[in-house]
Structure formats: structure tokens, C-alpha cells
Design goal:
three-stranded antiparallel β-sheet, binds zinc ion, 3 strands
Length: 80
């Protein structure tokens, strides 16, 4: 299992307030109603919340992929 906190911590920076304190939550949109409504398969997301101002961003696990891929994406976004 990917340790998302470790991946995002120190890389992700809040676009609103610039804080690097984060809270990680994982969401799976697998609810029957939702899936039917959107005609989606089950999509999973990593939610990164700024611990200072509460701003939250969602990243698709499908796109982030594995740990190495996710690291590349985060370095691309935040240029560390
Ligand atoms: Zn913030």
C-alpha cells in the first residue's frame, strides 16, 4: 500500500496559504447510487487537506499510480 502521507508531506504545498501541514484522506467513490448516476466504475481519490486553512485537493489514484509515478507527478507540480 502506498503511504500517501509520506509522499505528499514535504512536496505538497497549499496553493491558498502556502502551508505544508497536511491531512490525508482516501476516498473511494463506490457508492451504488453515485456509480449508477455517473456511469463510472469505482474511482479512488487521495484527498490532501491543508491543516492550516482547510483547503482540499483531490488526486485520482488511477493517475497517480504507484509510488514512483506519484512522486514524479508531485515533483512536476511543486518542483521540489
Ligand atoms: Zn492552506
Amino acid at each position: 500500500m502506498t503511504d500517501w502521507y509520506r509522499l505528499f508531506k514535504g512536496r505538497w504545498k497549499c496553493p491558498k496559504c502556502g502551508s505544508q501541514d497536511i491531512i490525508i484522506n482516501e476516498h473511494a467513490l463506490t457508492g451504488a447510487g453515485f456509480t449508477r448516476l455517473m456511469n463510472w466504475q469505482s474511482y479512488e481519490y487521495v484527498a490532501v487537506t491543508c491543516a492550516r486553512c482547510g483547503y482540499t485537493e483531490f488526486y485520482s489514484k488511477q493517475v497517480l499510480g504507484g509510488e514512483r509515478e506519484a512522486m514524479k507527478i508531485l515533483d512536476l507540480l511543486f518542483g521540489s
